[in-house]
Structure formats: C-alpha cells, structure tokens
C-alpha cells in the first residue's frame, strides 16, 4: 500500500467513526432499511444545497443520468452532446437509453467541454440534447449555451456528479438546466460507503418520472411503466447525512490543499494547471496537473509511495463501446491533454507532511 494513497476512506472513517457507528446501529434497530427517514433526509438536504425543489435519491449517479434522459422523454436515436473527457457513465447513460452520444472536444485551458464547438453543433441542428459535465468539480459555464438551447427547445442535463459544493456566480449547479445529477460514489466529496446518487430538478413532472423509474414504475399497487430497482440503502443514506455536515469544512480543507499545491508547483517549467474560470468556486474534488514525461513521473511517484490516478486516460470517443458512434468531430485538444494529465491525492485527511512529500517528490523528479 502506498504511504500516501490516492484516497484514504479508512482515515476518514476513523475521524467520524463516533458518528457513523451509532447511525448505522439506529438504522438497523429501526428495521427500515429502504425508503425510510434517512433517504428522505438526504433528499431534503440535497435539494437545499442545490437550491432546487425536488431531489430523488437513487442507487448511483449512473442511474441518475440514465433516468434523467428517460424523464426528459428523449426518443431513441436522439443525439446527445457530451464532452469526450469525463467518466464513462456520462455517455453510457445515453446509450442505455438507445440514444446517440455526440462527443465534443474540450477547452484546453479548463478541460471542460468546448463551448464554441458545442454551440456550433447546436446551431447546425446536430444535437437534440446536451449533457454538461462539471469536470473535476469546476462548473461548465452554461448561460450562453442555455440562451440558445431554450430557443431551440433542446433540454440540458447537468452532470454534477463531481460538483457538490461547487458554485458559479454564487449559484450551485442546476439553476440553468432542466435536470441535474449527483453521485455519492465513495470517491466523491460526499460519498457513501457503497453506491448512491440523486437527481435534482425544479420540475415535479421530471421528479415523479424518476421516482417511478426508481422502483418498477409503481404507483400505489399498480406498475404503470417498466422501471428498475435503484433504491439507495438507508445505511448509505445515513452515512451521507452524517458526511453532509462536513460539506463546508471538508471543502475548505480541499481548497487549502489545492492552494498549497498550486503555490508550490506553479513555478515548475514542466507542469501546468487548469484555469479556474472567473466566477467559479471549485470544490477541488480532483486536483489535476498537466505534466511532461508522465509515465516516468507516475512510476517515480509510485516508488515514493505516492498514489496517483489519471482522470481520464482514454477520451470517451476512443473507448471500444463508443466507437460505433464514430464522428468526424475534431478531438485534437482532448487527444493531446489526456496524455499529460495526472490527478494528485487531495482529501481533507491529507496531512501537511504528506502534502509536502508530494510536492517535494515532484520537484526532485524534475530537478
Ligand atoms: C462525471 C461523472 N458522471 C457520472 C458518474 C457516475 O456516478 P456513479 O459512479 O455514482 O454511478 C461519475 C462518478 O463516478 C462521474 O464522475
């Protein structure tokens, strides 16, 4: 095991064990393990964080995306724009609904979807919907995009799986789009110790549809449509409810670690960083650097006991499962950047001495 692993859920658990264990016991003692008070509480709290009327908790962020596409009533073969640099689920949810992903290159300064390329696709009637991804925890600017999609009646989904706590111009994700998705994957800023996700929206109609999809289309005793079983466990909801109390303080710590990384590594010639757009508050879910000699740096850090990851090594349009949707779009930027990115460890439990070790190791490598 690395001395500084990429993620330390074990250390996180030790810090909050005194709250987690009684909460787990309470759920088990209550005898209600699905669709109980904990799930309801998560939904209320998350709706508040996103300042949206409805939240439906689910068993994953992937289901949140998939059910959102279904709730919007997008017909099979609808073409849905999605950035080529994101987690697979942002696009597999499209295919799950028999729709067609239209991959879009990224803006090289942020790694977010290239806004002008997306607008060109929308203006030339090449997409029927958009999934905007707030990658690494930085929000994709949507105002200009939504001004056009609204006129064309093109729905917009926000994939905010990585963006709990992030803001743009003072607002959380979800204010400009039709429906927003969240993940409680264990790696996320607030994660379950298992799987979980949620859909947030101001539309009662969409929320009701997602609720039906969550459990077999059941309305009372009758099943009115073919649904799934995507209930979040009460145990996981209880864990999320506890962790949500730390949303602000954990984010402050992440932001501080990002600030230290940036200050200390900014002057390195072989490294560069993505820009935080004016008006954005980054939650620093991930801290991604661009570097020369990536493979050598990765193995050097590994030898130092420092855990790293690549988010994401293969742009989505190059994955085997998506190659059928081959497009002539230009992917120059994402092709290049994906070969240079490394995610450094960033979590509230990271100690000062560990942050220093990561920084010094990178400095030594490039000396
Ligand atoms: C951008 C993005 N979209 C979707 C997902 C899918 O969420 P989940 O893993 O909860 O299914 C994730 C996280 O894993 C993600 O990072």
Describe the structure.
By secondary structure, this protein is of the alpha/beta class. The chain has two domains: 9-244, Aspartate Aminotransferase, domain 2, CATH 3.40.640.10; 247-366, Aspartate Aminotransferase, domain 1. Helices cover 40% and strands 15% of the residues. Strand 2 (79-83), helix 4 (89-96) and strand 3 form a beta-alpha-beta unit. It is globular, with a radius of gyration of 21 Å. The mean pLDDT is 97. Bound molecules: pyridoxal-5'-phosphate. Pyridoxal-5'-phosphate binds at residues 60-62, 86-87, 89-90, 133, 159, 161-162, 183, 185, 195, 197.
Q: How many β-strand stretches?
A: 14
Bound molecules: pyridoxal-5'-phosphate
Strand neighbour order, sheet with most strands: 1-8-7-5-4-2-3
Low-pLDDT residue intervals, each spanning 5 or more residues:
none
The helix content, as a percent range, equals 25-40%
| CATH uppermost class of the largest domain | Alpha Beta
The termini sit apart by 27 Å
Q: What proportion of the residues form beta strands (DSSP E)? A: 5-15%
> What class, by secondary structure content?
alpha/beta
The CATH topology of the largest domain corresponds to Aspartate Aminotransferase, domain 2
> How many structurally independent domains?
2
Can you identify the CATH superfamily of the largest domain? Type I PLP-dependent aspartate aminotransferase-like (Major domain)
Structure keywords:
binds pyridoxal-5'-phosphate; 367 residues; seven-stranded mixed β-sheet; alpha/beta; Aspartate Aminotransferase, domain 2; 14 strands; three-stranded antiparallel β-sheet; Aspartate Aminotransferase, domain 1; globular; 2 domains
């Amino acid at each position: 095991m690395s001395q500084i692993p990429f993620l330390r859920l074990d250390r996180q658990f030790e810090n909050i064990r005194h709250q987690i264990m009684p909460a787990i016991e309470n759920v088990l003692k209550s005898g209600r393990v699905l669709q109980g008070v904990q799930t309801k509480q998560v939904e209320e709290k998350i709706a508040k964080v996103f300042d949206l009327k409805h939240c439906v908790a689910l068993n994953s962020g992937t289901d949140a995306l998939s059910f959102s596409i279904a709730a919007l009533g997008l017909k099979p073969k609808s073409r849905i724009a999605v950035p080529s640099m994101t987690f697979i689920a942002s696009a597999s949810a499209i295919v799950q609904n028999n729709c067609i992903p239209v991959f879009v290159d990224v803006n090289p300064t942020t790694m977010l979807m290239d806004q002008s390329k997306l607008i060109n696709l929308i203006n030339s009637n090449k997409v029927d919907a958009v999934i905007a991804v707030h990658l690494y925890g930085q929000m994709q600017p949507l105002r200009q995009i939504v001004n056009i999609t609204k006129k064309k009646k093109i729905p917009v989904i926000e994939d905010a799986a990585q963006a709990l706590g992030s803001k743009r111009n003072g607002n959380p994700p979800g204010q400009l789009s039709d429906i927003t998705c969240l993940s409680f994957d264990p790696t996320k800023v607030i994660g379950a110790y298992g799987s979980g996700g949620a859909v947030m929206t101001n539309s009662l109609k969409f929320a009701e549809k997602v609720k039906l999809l969550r459990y077999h289309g059941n309305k009372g005793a009758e099943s009115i449509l073919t649904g799934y079983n995507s209930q979040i466990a009460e145990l996981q909801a209880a864990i999320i409810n506890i962790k949500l109390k730390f949303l602000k303080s954990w984010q402050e710590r992440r932001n501080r670690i990002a600030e230290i990384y940036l200050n200390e590594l900014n002057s390195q010639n072989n490294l560069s960083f993505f820009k935080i757009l004016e008006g954005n508050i980054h939650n620093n879910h991930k801290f991604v650097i661009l570097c020369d000699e990536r493979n050598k740096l990765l193995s050097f850090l590994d030898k130092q006991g420092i855990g790293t990851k690549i988010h994401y090594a293969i742009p989505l349009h190059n994955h085997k499962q998506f190659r059928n949707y081959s497009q002539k779009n230009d992917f120059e930027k994402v092709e290049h950047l994906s070969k240079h990115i490394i995610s450094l460890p960033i979590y509230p439990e990271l100690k000062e001495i560990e942050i220093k070790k990561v920084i010094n190791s990178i400095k030594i490598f490039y000396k």
